[in-house]
Amino acid sequence: MIQWLRRLKKAFGFSFLWLICLIYFTQGFRSFVWTAVSYQLKDLLKLSPSASQFVSSIAFFPWSIKPLYGILSDCIPIKGRKRIPYIQIATVLSLVPWLILGLNAYMRSSTWHLIIFLTAQNLGSAMADVVVDAMIAEAVRSERSSFAGDLQSISWLSMAFGGICGSLLGGYALTNLKIHTIFLLFSVLPTIQLLSCGLVEENLVGSNVSHEFSNSSNSHMVNGNNNVFDEDISIEKNSSVSIIRRRKSQKKKKKRSVFSSKYHTSENGNNLILQWLRSLKVATYSLYGAFRQPAILRPMTWFFLAHVTVPNLSTIMFYYQTEFLNLEPSFLGTARVVGWAGLMLGTYAYNRYLKKIKLRKILLWTQIGLSILSLLDIVLVSRMNVAYGISDKATVLYGSALSDAVNQFKFMPFLILSGQLCPPGIEGTLFALFMSINNFGSTVGSFVGAGLASVLNISSGSFNNLLSGIVIQIICTFIPIAFLFLIPKEATGVST
């Protein structure tokens, strides 16, 4: 392990590797602070389960427009750099909301202010996620392509480690600290991230263009001065009486030279803006042209439908577990750690045993497995587990681990198909689009879940109809199976 890290450090440099690991660790550690947000919405703002899920869905919308950040960073450099300035902007957006919410009681007590700041924070996190992926892709392409798998592995390990630490410490912090203190503590990570950006050097882009612009301006200035000099000689030859006239002419020529320089600088700036606009236009059309191809559009439509047709009741279950079952924050943090372990187990099982199986078959059994695991929620809500002597904590722990493991069986085919479908040249931006579709589907599924909870009158302290909601969710889990024809028939986890 140590030798592996040393090889990566030698290949890419310590500062680059540190920034990559820190950003991914912070992404995983977000569970530390978002658990506190859940309690803020439930206990302090007294929102109903459907209202709380509605707020969370709005706040996470920036994750649904990830291609926008990729196109901007690709096409519009800031001071000649395409990545680090955007990481800095993203980090500031991630940092400032937590500082304001931690220091200002009014802001965190107002629902609409909270929505605005949480949305801004997610905007920064999503932008950082896209840009750091682009940095990894560029580093692998320009430095050592043999390290591609190593960089991805250390990224996932950093995020998983951050998720485990955030879940464990988040439950402990909620038991012993005030929520606003948790907000302030989390802001330490974005602060370190912002400072770390200054350690990474990035090559300037468009330096040749800038150099040409500089030479162009200088040549105009030099030519102007030479013309003045030639004119001075001719005037001196004519007569010494014309010295005053020569000086006046020289001043006029200098003014023209300065004006010409400013004009060309302005013109070059306009050309640069036009170049950016053309790049944005080309990238957008390339993205649109690639995505509208049936081979890409059909599978992505299935993954979107797989989210929107199944109501997401996670927030409602959180209310049930904390209010009716009285599960403490520290235990819920432990359950999330078990969920991370299930996720990693699912990844291992897929790569070890399922990689060569057709994706249609995997997705079919994944949907069936999710419907079966939802029966654990029915057992929990109907209190059947108590009748058979099984504790609520054991039921929640097993359900969390198994659900995350099975969900990974659906996410891995998504990643595989995304990689296989991306055409050369726009891999990063198109992959960001695929992830956005997945995230947007999850957001819409959360809205559907919030709407279902509202229709069934499920509210804080009133969970009489929660069992009906879970039954509807189980039935809806089978709907995506009817659309599996959208997945390529022969596609497997092995590149073809």
Automatic annotation (TrEMBL):
InterPro entries (UniProt xref): BT1, FBT, MFS_trans_sf
UniProtKB keywords: Membrane, Transmembrane, Transmembrane helix, Transport
Transmembrane segments: 12-34, 54-72, 84-106, 153-173, 302-320, 332-350, 362-381, 440-459, 466-487
Membrane topology: Multi-pass membrane protein
One of the record's GO cellular component terms: membrane
Cell compartments where the protein resides: Membrane
Primary location class: membrane
Family membership: Belongs to the major facilitator superfamily. Folate-biopterin transporter (TC 2.A.71) family.
NCBIfam families the UniProt entry points to: fbt (TIGR00788)
Protein name: Folate-biopterin transporter 4
